[in-house]
Amino acid sequence: ILNVEQSPQSLHVQEGDSTNFTCSFPSSNFYALHWYRWETAKSPEALFVMTLNGDEKKKGRISATLNTKEGYSYLYIKGSQPEDSATYLCAHSSGNTPLVFGKGTRLSVIA
Amino acid sequence: NAGVTQTPKFRVLKTGQSMTLLCAQDMNHEYMYWYRQDPGMGLRLIHYSVGEGTTAKGEVPDGYNVSRLKKQNFLLGLESAAPSQTSVYFCASADPGGLEAFFGQGTRLTVV
User: Fold this and answer.
1) At residue A97, does pLDDT exceed 80?
2) From the CA of A103, how many Å to the nearest CA of chain B?
3) Does A111 touch chain B (CB under 8 A)?
4) Does position B39 have pLDDT exceeding 90, yes or no?
5) SS3 per-residue string spanning chain A
6) Which residues contact A10 (CB under 8 A, 6 or more apart)?
7) For residue B102, which residues of chain A lie inside 8 Å, CB to CB?
8) pLDDT at B103 > cutoff 80
9) Is the pLDDT of residue B17 over 90?
10) What is the pLDDT of residue B97?
11) Residue A42 confidence (pLDDT)
């Protein structure tokens, strides 16, 4: 089972601030990198799935980039809002291997 | 649209009791997973299946067994529950390309 590391573990930002988190993963046998948004008492919800080196995805104020050669992905949130407060999980898969999740970054946006 | 359904949603067990958690998906997905979620630990993979009749161990398989007799169902069994198995359990399924996983609503299990 391949290791996925996320940093920081938790983050507190003021409403309106922009922020970003990091996901590191093994660069060998890469298949896909996933970002999920996970609110308390709910199930994780997919944000992005990226497969190609250099991929950039965007959904509203949230975007993500992927570097498969060096094994990292960044998630960016522009102009954070209180409703962005959640745990953001990244997960890595290598072909037939299952999704392996990092421990997540817990974001709190203070109004 | 049912998606991924887990039953039960809540359960309290006494140490040593057994139980089975059911995960059902209606998306014809090949891959199914069982994870447990504990504070500060993210989602840890217990067991997974890449197709009907197949299962494999994940990161934390001890104390659990699984079966995938039908493609749409993935069962997680605890033969003799321990307090360390108190957790929230999530089931997920993925499309044939494995590019997106869909999660159930979770089962909160407490072992006393």
Assistant:
1) no
2) 4
3) no
4) no
5) CCCCEEECCEEEEECCCCEEEEEECCCCCCCEEEEEEECCCCCCEEEEEECCCCCEEEECCEEEEEECCCCEEEEEECCCCHHHCEEEEEEEECCCCCCEECCCEEEEEEC
6) A105, A106, A107, A108
7) 46
8) yes
9) yes
10) 66
11) 86
Task: Tell me how close the Cα of A47 comes to any Cα of chain B, in angstroms.
Answer: 10
Asked if pLDDT for residue A87 goes beyond 60, the answer is yes
pLDDT confidence of residue B1: 59
Total length of chain A: 111
| Chain B residues 10-49 with CB within 8 Å of chain A | 31, 33, 35, 40-45, 48
E strand spans, B1-86: 4-7, 10-13, 19-25, 31-37, 43-49, 56-57, 65-67, 73-78
A1, A43, A103 member nearest B42 (Cβ): A103
- State the residue for tokens 């198995």: B85
